[in-house]
């Protein structure tokens, strides 16, 4: 089976990918039966090697290739040849930021794939980040933070909005966990102000720890 992910909504893509991982890999270890590849780093020989490996624990291996449209010409040719004779032990997920099928290469892939359209990425803020933390969706929370940060929002502003939301979560949390969360905010603020860590790294660590305090 081959899936083609089109569009710029990275959050929805990641949710769908996580769903596929749960369905295909079940309780097996990601490190063995899941492989995330980046098109710019791939060569025909690397592709051939990835597609030749067999699953160790799950029934199938899941291979995800990011920005497939950015493959080199030789790698595109190799991928198309592999798709013509698909390995039944592999679920292949191909991703592209492109929203419309205009390039011949993508059209050829689409003809052999189940196509998913993921529209324009929504605008996120610190409150969306807090919602993901509250829901214990760590990977989604980290992705939302990355999107907010890349759009130019300073980490200290994100931290402030996130702390406001954390206080609103108090009634949903264990008292000790809420208190520990407040301490983590203080520690993160100090780390940023005194340059103990890069601001984005400090925020990522905080996000992971808050998700754990919420039960993630």
Task: Tell me about this structure.
The protein has helices spanning 10-25, 30-33, 44-52, 73-84, 104-110, 126-134, 138-150, 155-168, 175-193, 199-213, and strands spanning 2-7, 34-38, 61-66, 90-96, 114-118. By secondary structure, the chain is α/β, with parallel strands linked by helices. It folds into two domains: 2-118, 3-Layer(aba) Sandwich (Rossmann fold), CATH 3.40.50; 126-213. α6 packs antiparallel against α7 (138-150). The relative contact order is 0.14.
Which features would summarize this protein structure in a list?
216 residues, alpha/beta, Rossmann fold, 2 domains, five-stranded parallel β-sheet, 10 helices, 5 strands
